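Example 3.2
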Amino acid sequence: MSETGSKRSPEARRGQTVALLVSSTLLIAAAFAASFLGRFLSYGAVGTDKSTAEMNAVMGLAVYGPFVITLLAIGVGAFLLQRGRSVWAVPLAGVVLLIVNFYSAAALI
């Protein structure tokens, strides 16, 4: 059987679905942890001489950014799963983007 397209066996599709669900659950947990740490990071911007707009940007990026990244990663994973493609790397890319997002917010301080 081919590994791409709709010719994938039901067992392989079920395995991909389970892998996406488990890794998405871990990605959601990582997003909550990153958002929690981002809140402390945004409190660090209060003691600086930054303007209110810059502090709001740090807050938005550090606290709400992980949830946006997680929703996009899960959406892309579901889309690729529906198209019959392999989805194992999508949540991994989401975790990498969470790390990049956190350090981007820290760089704004």
